[in-house]
């Protein structure tokens, strides 16, 4: 049984660009996001309101939010780690904010400078405040299939952290294979267990393609009735505080596979290609997706 339709949430402007060694000029970022807005997405995560010392690539989040042409029907979202970030996000009138934490205590400390226990009250306040402002909230849990510092992460640990976020009132939960270590059998087993604890109608999966297993992991997830996936155009991406976390699942590869399978995404492959070629030119390097490898040979 395959789904008829899948929702793809584009995280390239955030997860992609945060891991690029070069800072993309503001004008180019805005032009790229505007191209993405024309491609048929319903959701674009455009930046992060985090400390610019930690992620200098996204220090212009406010300007990006103000300069992009927001299209009706698209949710424009940004990451916020704390109250300070939320205030900036609200000032720029984003549609949705994403809070994030890790299932691994060590990764959480490296990423946001707090233990898991210290993070809960911070995020609880952010979720409450965001809701009062009428914003929907997404919650990410990172390193759910493995951590670069702690190794294997137990499925019940992931469920515990996720349940805490759900109790705070998040509208969607995105489970992240931050360093791209998950294999399809592991995803199948983990999802079978999480099914007992987590509401699958609120679940999105966030795979990185570090070891080339992201698309296979999507297939397994679809078999568990998951129909929302995060992806970054061209396979950009990673996490600067997770060694080896290169390359999100490539949106263009995912869209191609789904369309070949007769599964709708609402995304226009030609427009996607235009947007991918644009950001490839700006970054001045060949993007790693299979679709772009084909295009680059033409
Ligand atoms: P901290 O140093 O512990 O913060 O950083 P603090 O609260 O002690 O404040 C220190 C200073 O930072 C203060 O300024 C604050 O005002 C300022 P000072 O008084 O010294 O001048 N500050 C801020 N400035 C701007 N924006 C803010 C902000 N907050 C405080 N929001 C902090 C804690 C969370 C801020 C920091 O660790 C941080 O910014 N981390 C960002 C980490 C990040 O963005 N990681 C990548 C995203 S997660 C990811 O990629 C995984 C995901 O893709 C899923 C997956 O793959 O699994 C989502
Ligand atoms: Mg990620």
TrEMBL record:
GO biological process, one term: ketone body biosynthetic process
Pfam families: HMGL-like (PF00682)
Keywords from the named record: Lyase, Metal-binding
Molecular function as annotated in GO: hydroxymethylglutaryl-CoA lyase activity; metal ion binding
Domain Pyruvate carboxyltransferase: residue ranges: 6-273
InterPro entries membership: Aldolase_TIM, HMGL, PYR_CT
Family of this protein: Belongs to the HMG-CoA lyase family.
PANTHER family membership: HYDROXYMETHYLGLUTARYL-COA LYASE
Protein name in the entry: Hydroxymethylglutaryl-CoA lyase
């Amino acid at each position: 049984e395959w789904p008829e339709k899948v929702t793809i949430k584009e995280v390239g402007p955030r997860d992609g660009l945060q891991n690029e060694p070069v800072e993309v000029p503001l004008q180019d970022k805005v032009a790229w996001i505007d191209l993405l807005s024309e491609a048929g997405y319903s959701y674009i995560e455009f930046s992060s309101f985090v400390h610019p010392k930690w992620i200098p690539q996204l220090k212009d989040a406010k300007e990006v939010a103000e300069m992009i042409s927001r299209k009706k029907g698209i949710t424009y979202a940004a990451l916020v780690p704390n109250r300070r970030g939320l205030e900036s996000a609200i000032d720029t009138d984003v549609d949705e904010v994403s809070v994030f934490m890790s299932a691994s205590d060590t990764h959480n400390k490296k990423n946001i400078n707090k233990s898991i226990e210290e993070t809960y009250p911070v995020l609880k306040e952010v979720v409450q405040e965001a809701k009062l402002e009428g914003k929907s909230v997404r919650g990410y849990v990172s390193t759910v299939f493995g951590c670069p510092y702690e190794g294997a992460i137990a499925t019940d640990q992931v469920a515990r952290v996720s349940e805490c976020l759900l109790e705070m009132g998040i509208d969607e939960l995105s489970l992240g294979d931050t360093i791209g270590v998950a294999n399809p059998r592991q995803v199948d087993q983990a999802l079978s267990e999480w099914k007992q604890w987590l509401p699958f109608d609120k679940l999105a999966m966030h795979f990185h393609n570090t070891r080339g297993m992201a698309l296979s992991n999507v297939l397994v997830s679809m078999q568990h009735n998951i129909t929302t996936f995060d992806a970054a155009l061209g396979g950009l991406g990673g996490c600067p505080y997770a060694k080896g976390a290169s390359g999100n699942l490539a949106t263009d590869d995912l869209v191609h596979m789904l369309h070949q399978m007769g599964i709708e995404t609402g995304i226009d492959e030609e427009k996607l290609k235009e947007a991918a070629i644009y950001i490839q030119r700006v970054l001045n390097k060949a993007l790693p997706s299979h679709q772009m490898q084909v295009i680059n040979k033409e």
